[in-house]
Amino acid sequence: MHIGLVGLGKMGGNMRARLREKGVEVTGYDPNPDVTDVASLEDLVAALPSPKVVWVMVPSGQITRDTVASLAPLLGEGDLVIEGGNSKWTDDEKNAALLAERGTGYVDCGVSGGVWGRENGYGLMAGGDSANIDLAMPVFDALRPEGPREEGFAHAGEVGAGHYAKMVHNGIEYGLMHAYAEGYELLEAKGIITDVPAVFKAWTRGTVVRSWLLDLLVHALEEDPKLAKLRGYASDSGEGRWTLEQAIENAVPMPVLAAALFARFASRQEDSPSIKAVAALRNQFGGHAVTEAGPTSGTGSVS
Question: Transmembrane residues, as ranges (predicted)?
Fold first, then answer.
C-alpha cells in the first residue's frame, strides 16, 4: 500500500518510519525542507495511486482544518483522508462534509503512543464507515502494536468517535499522572523514605499500580532523581478541558479529572489570587498572620 502523510514532526516522522519498516510505502509532506519528501501538497497527491489515501498529522485546531480544506480540491471520488491529530471531535463532521462534496471519504483516528510509538506501536481509535476503515486497515495494522488487532485498534464508531475516544483517553491520563505525582510528593516529603526512585521502580513489577506511565516516571527519576531540572509548571493541550465539558453536558461526575486539570492551572500561577483572598479573610476574621508582598509578589515579611 502507498499513502501520503502530511506533517512530519515528532509523531508524524516516527509514524512514517514505522510504516516504511512495516512495508507501507509513504510519501510525506512537511513545510520543513529537511524532512519532506515532496515540495507541496499537490506533489504529494500526484505521487499517490488511486484510491488516494492521505493521513493528516499536524497540530490540532485551525492548522488541521486548513490542511483538510487544502486537500479537498486535490482529491476525488473514492479517495480517503485520515485525520490523526488530537482534534476536537466536533471538527470531524465538518471535515467529513467538506470532503464528501467531492466523494472523498473521511476517517478520524485518535493516536496514542507518543515518541515511543515507532518502537512500541500506537494505540488507535478510529471513527468512520466500515468501507473507509477497511481501505485503511493495512495502515492501521502497520501502526498498531504487535499482537491481536483488538488490543491495539478499535473501530470506535461513526465519524467523530475516534477523536472522542482519544479525548476521554487523555482525560483518564490526566488523572493517572496526577495520582503518581501526588504520591511522589508525599514520598519526598517524609524523611523516612531515602530512595524515592527505588520505591517507584519496585512498583513497576507485580503491583496493581504498575503501568507504562509509571515506567516513564521511573525513567524520568533515573535521569533526575529530585526533578531539579524542571519547574513545577504544567501546560494542557485541550483534551482534558473537552472531556470535562462533556462530563458536564452528560451529567457524568469526573472529580479526578477536574482536580488534575485545575492543579495544572494552579501550577501556572506565580502568586495565587485565590490564596491571597484566603489569607486576607483569615486575617480579617481571626487576626491570623499574613505574608506581606515585597519587591516581588508573594514574598515579604510575616505580620
Answer: none
